[in-house]
What does this fold into?
Amino acid sequence: MACLIRLLLAGGVIGGWQSVAAHDLFTNYVQHCVQLTVGARHLDLTVDLTFFEEWSARERQTMDANPNGRITRSELEAYLKPLAARLSGQVKLRVAGHELPLALLYDPEVDLMTNDQTGPGHHRLRLFYFAPTPTTLRAEDEIVVEDRLWPEAKLLGTLQSEGHDGCKLTTEISIKAGRVPPPPDEARWFKFRCVKPPVANPAAPVAATARPLIPSPPPPSPSQPMPASLTQPVP
Amino acid sequence: MNRQLPPHFSLTLLAATLAAFCCVASAQSADPATSLPAGVIDFAGRVARNHWYLFGTAKRTEMEALNRELREAQQQLDKANTDETRRDAASRGTAASSRLREHVNACAHLVRVDLTAAHPMFTPGGPIELPGDTGALLLEVVAGGAGLSYRTAGFDLSLPPGESSLATLEVPASGTNYAVIGLEHLPFGRTTLGIEFKRPDQPPVRLPLEVTTPAPGRLKLTVLSDDTGQPAPAMVRLLWRTDGGSRQPGNGIEFAPQFDKQGKASGARNANLPGPLADSFWCVPAPFDMTLAPGEWQIGVRRGVEHEVIFENITVRSGETVARTFRPRRWTDMRQHGWWSGDDHVHCRILSDADARHLMAWVQAEDIHLANVVKMGDIYRTYFEQRGFGPDYRVVDGEHVLSPGQECPRTHDQIGHTLAMNITSMVRDPERYFLYDEVFDAVHAQGGLSGYAHVNTGLFHVHRDMSLNVPRQKVDFVEILQFNQLGTDLYYDFLNLGCKLTASAGSDVPWGGTIGEVRTYAYLAKQRFSADAWFEAFRRGRTFTTSGPMIEFRVDKALSGDELQLKADRQLRVRARAWGDPQRMAPVKLEIVRHGEVIRAAESSDPKHPEVQLDFTVAAGHGAWIAARARGGDGTSAHTTPIYIVRAGLRFWKYDGVDELIAKRLASLAEIEQIVADAKQLNAEGKLEKDRYRKQLALQGDALLERVTRARNLYANLQRTAEAEREQRRPSGR
It folds into this structure.
């Protein structure tokens, strides 16, 4: 019942706002930016969700636990803690049809975009995942991200990919942006194709023993030359 | 200094430690042989992502590796279904956890406190040097007895307002706890923090801790125009390597007041472009001088797609000034080829000279020559007000023009959004809001240009009104590129029906990322740039749209938007060239499209020279539209307006697809009939008194249905035309 009450309250607020909505353009959309980085040892997947007005208002309502109209840092933390677990099954990664064990790389992050008030705004939620790169990865293998995040929201989708260790990727996308949302159990598929698999890194992965650690490739640094990333337009 | 702190600083907080402590308590009761120390994964993630500086640059990758190792071990533990696999996973996790603890214990920044001592105190006692206005404390808290746990927390010295230097840390009742506490909004110099430790069933222990931050340095930054060598507006990003957060440049323009609280109402603009171009950049109108925390900084400078992007690392030292001048180099100068850039969809209030000055700086920073600054309307009201319309209200600065236009009418659940350029007054009548053709006619009567927004994604059911008014030649252009998404489904459908449409693109800021992230180039040849010349070239269809690569395209001597009239079939020479920024767009792929099908394609092979050309002949056949499109290796796209090949007596349509194409349009018309019928029904039942859109749709429904009837007749005529062309299109008819 508590959940139901909260939903109804949120709906009331949002409904009231909608009736005088300034600009419905994209207000009920969530922009999904799916970024895949493939290296010899790991596939890193970052999903950036930009919530436009209506969905941001709903999430902000949820964040504002006390609720006094202002989202505090403690409320944000409390919002994020269960979020990671709740969303854990909503993103899947398949390589050549085989699901990889996707794990969180970091805690989710929220950027309220300088607006800590409830009500319509924009905010960005960033989710970090990773999985070991399968040794069976071959050229022409399809890498598919199944995205069931906020399935009831309309979606704008973009893809970016980046290959390390000699890996090259192309991107495809099989979602229809801006169209009627798919049924809740239907994923949006973001597809990448391996043109050239990464060259196996001779360094062994970090071992469970106390032997010296072999560092993984450094995190992507924006100071490096621009990556050969690809963003596939939505057809 | 307005700081855009890294997200973790927005998220971590001491109050949340209670939740983490619960995890600690429960984990401590778990089987230590098959579980990891409580909180260690969060700790490792926070350290690896946000506070790696504590361990030094050399250890960064190692901390990252440990984070992954711990998370994979935890995942294995969660999935283990035999004792052996459980032991293996636990062993792996324990090893990584031990290694992490070794690093923490060896860390020069570690501060210890023994709460079991008679007089607990920090060791070392301080002051603890922090790197700048943000930083982190790494603590070892001994509470006595066995147990090992980890904590993460954050503390903002600006909150709550006033004297706010007390941080509360909840720790387990016993054992050793390692905590990393992010601190933000630290003053310069010396600060006395109060750190309060709370343990279950014990009185809190509050200890003072002196922290210091170094004196800031200064950055003087100038961006020069590659054309003039003089200071010019630019898009600038300042990123502090230490915390991964960016800062607002000293004179970065805050556009929020001009955005009517709409969209992404901030001056920090994240372009819908690949890689680091999507990070926050600010419009900087002129050179600036500001203080920055000492350390490594990355400066990013952009000046629109024709310029190379600069990322440079600098070191700022306490008390010293770093001066940098950047001159982003043009990798192409489209003006020299006769092409001038525009953005057909910019929302921004202009009610004062200051408003105009701000927006002009942004337009110049993104190297856009013509911005269609659209006042937006809906059935209720208008937004992004303008001082007026027409040439008198254009804002001109050299070869950059802000030209007021409109995005109205706009219906979201009915028939789509429209745009108008070069108008002399806004056209809006809520009582006839659904009769878009009247607006298109009025705009044309003013000498303006009409079009549809968001056609690339087919948003807001725009296909419905397109089905009414495109075949009636009521509109000039459609947006096929937005948010770096090239979408041609609807565009090709109407071209394939033999309808001419000019390709256009608009950023739609503040919903879009930045002005000019997608843009429309209009061909002025050797004509001097002016708004009027640009609009005239656009009206002729001499355009291409792009988010990255550039295109030149001709069929014989015809340019985009031109019509080649042929009395008989003959060979046509198709020439096209696509090229991109060597820094980021290789390889560039070029495709020639006829009736939506690729008839020739090529890809650049030299990674340092992403340029590709096609030069071939193709038979005119019975006529066609032919366009060029390109794709950069970074995922950016470009697309030209077609060249129309018209055989005498024939439409240039995709003849063998006409039945299907018309069927689609008739289905769209049926959708209009249905929404009108639904609205009328609800209105008759008195259910629309709070829904002005559908109320007006019901009231205007008959007039709209008249237009549907006209459109149906038009499509019936097209079917008769197709029948009439059948004989001429037989093979012998060539």
